[in-house]
Amino acid sequence: MTIEQKKRSISLLLAGFIIFSSLYVTQPIFNGLSRYFNVSLSDISLTLSVSTFMLGIGLIIVPMFNNIEKKRMMSISVLLVSLLSIASVFATNFHLFLVIRGLMGLALSGVPSIAMAYIADEVHKDRIRKVMGLYVAGTTFGGMSGRVVVGILTDIANWQVAIASLSIINLILAVLMVILLPASTVQTPNWVSPKQHFIKYGQLLRIPAVLKAMSLAFLLMGTFVTIYSYITVRFERPPFSLSESTIAFIFILYLIGTYSSINFGKLSYKLGIKKAYAVAITIMIIGIALTFITYLPIDILGLAAMTFGFFGAHSIQSSYIATLTKSSKSHASTLYLLGYYVGSSLLTMLGGYIFIHLEWLGIGILSLMLTLTAVIISKSLFKNA
């Protein structure tokens, strides 16, 4: 591996870390934020849903600025996100907090689709799955670290200190990413009108495989985020009654996802995409089923299996979408991620209402239904893969 390849890999890892650690900081402290702002649990879920929804909207907008070099776009994004995250700790009004979280989601959109397109353009096709797996690993580690740091520091001090500390760390990492990331070698195209972009989106949406890949992203990401959002609330209540610091360590399970995302990329070369994906989603279903048992060690085991399976499936899905079109790769990546984040937003909101009325039983049933639907779609999508 050349020095430039190492710099590119490290930079993409950092980009994934910054984005996901910033996006999900409110997830482990839903109860604490609910008490601070004096709003319901379903309202607090908006702190996550608004960010992911605006991220989805941003993903449609970002490709319209295709005349901006990819490194510059990602650099602006990570720096702006870190600064907005710092600003959020000064919000004393719930609606102002939501506005800042929404702006963060919009700023975050400058990385995901651009990073995937950057990988597709700059990395040899034989290494795409491995590099994509590394980027996904960065998002996994970022998601874990952000939640753990915020959960522990909230228990020690308060949520403002927790989020501010993480945001300052991310700002430093963002500067490092800007320094290390090599500029794109692919010539930056001339500006293209929004109409032309929507024509490309329309063309891709007429491809059944693209719609199926979007559906898988919607279903699995929605399931994953919903489970982690409300199992933390479940663990704070009897019979578990765990502290926020203890619950924060549950997110260390994301390290399993780091291992999974890298190795399922490799496994797909050995077994083929269809078989590797079947293994990943089967493990995910078994994990969800285990969480129905009200016994902490079994619940943790179930979460671990669900996490392992999800990141394995996501690694395969995210690399597969890039193979569905020879041109408009950034648009294809955008549509995949649109399904990914809209699923996270809408299903987390739905999960909030279900949890209020049916508690964990409702969340578990919803998760199994969504995942089994994904199984049916994947059989069709990967039929010849």
UniProtKB/TrEMBL annotation:
The chain crosses the membrane at residues 12-30, 36-62, 74-92, 98-120, 132-153, 159-183, 204-231, 246-264, 276-296, 302-323, 335-356, 362-382. PROSITE patterns: MFS. It is a multi-pass membrane protein. Residues 8-385 form the Major facilitator superfamily (MFS) profile domain. InterPro entries: MFS, MFS_dom, MFS_trans_sf. It is found in: Cell membrane. It comes from the Bacteria. SUPFAM superfamilies: MFS general substrate transporter. It holds the Pfam family MFS_1. Signal peptide: none annotated. Belongs to the major facilitator superfamily. This is MFS transporter. It comes from Mammaliicoccus vitulinus.
